[in-house]
Specification:
The protein is an alpha+beta fold and 71 residues long. The longest helix has 14 residues. The chain has one helix and seven strands. A hairpin with a 5-residue loop joins strand 2 and strand 3. The mean pLDDT is 94. The strands form three sheets. A three-stranded mixed β-sheet has the order 5-6-7, with no helix packed on it. Strands 1-4 form a two-stranded antiparallel ribbon. A two-stranded antiparallel ribbon has the order 2-3. It is flat and about 50 Å long.
Length: 71
């Protein structure tokens, strides 16, 4: 999932895009017969919830408005 596109700043420095890569992503049929994309990320406790992960999670939730399930 693209969180921020790459860009060139005013000084000419190029910055790479920022991606969030989920562990699992699938569609699930809901009770109203519509399909919803589900995103899952496997975490081994608080030690794997790094600051970078927390920031990317917030950006993902804001941009894509999809459920993100932590397992």
């Amino acid at each position: 999932f693209l969180l921020q596109a790459g860009f060139e700043d005013v000084t000419g420095v190029k910055h790479r895009p920022i991606f969030y890569i989920a562990d699992f992503c699938y569609e699930e049929k809901q009770s109203n017969s519509k399909w919803e994309m589900i995103v899952e990320d496997v975490k081994g406790g608080n030690a794997t919830k790094t600051e970078v992960y927390r920031i990317k999670k917030k950006l993902f939730l804001k941009k894509y408005k999809l459920p993100l399930i932590e397992i």
